[in-house]
Specification:
mainly beta; Elongation Factor Tu (Ef-tu), domain 3; SH3 type barrels; six-stranded antiparallel sheet; 2 helices; elongated
């Protein structure tokens, strides 16, 4: 299950509402979302990518939309758009072990979107401050989602000893 956003305040009288923290790729017109176990189809999408407005088929008025405020919009993974090669969802990376060969660096806490790129926030195995690993080819050698394993280059990250 993927969190597509959080229901915000109602918009208008027809059951439409704003979406907070939207994952826009999961909010396409005609997509199916679930709120509190009730599945419903997106029948209207307006607003902008940063501030989308949705109406779901199962909620037809302002009061219904208001009762949803603060609830998670959930998309089943099988209903989500397919990813391209070398693309991953944050949920797939969270909890993965980060290693450089035999050296265990830690576990991915979360994905952070920074202005220049996205980074993995890694809780270090040695208890030190979190390590930020940029999602760039120089830093990431491989990602094995099924095994929950991410191979990185410690030297590129400034964590390893320089080669002699």
């Amino acid at each position: 299950m993927l969190i597509a956003g959080i229901v915000g305040r109602p918009h208008g009288l027809d059951g439409s509402f704003y979406v907070n923290a939207p994952r826009i790729d999961l909010l396409e017109l005609g997509s199916e979302l679930t709120i509190d176990g009730v599945a419903s189809t997106i029948v209207r999408r307006a607003g902008t990518d940063a501030h989308p407005i949705l109406r779901l088929a199962s909620y037809a008025d302002r009061n219904a939309a208001g009762s949803l405020r603060g609830k998670q919009l959930v998309c089943e993974t099988r209903n989500a758009p397919a990813l391209g090669p070398d693309e991953y969802r944050a949920e797939d990376l969270e909890g993965a072990h980060v290693v450089d060969g035999e050296h265990d660096l830690g576990v991915v806490r979360r994905l952070i979107a920074l202005p220049s790129c996205e980074c993995l926030s890694v809780a270090r195995s040695d208890g030190g401050p979190d390590l930020l690993v940029p999602l760039v080819r120089d830093a990431i050698r491989s990602v094995d989602v099924e095994r929950g394993l991410i191979e990185v280059d410690r030297q590129f990250l400034g964590e390893g000893e320089p080669e002699s």
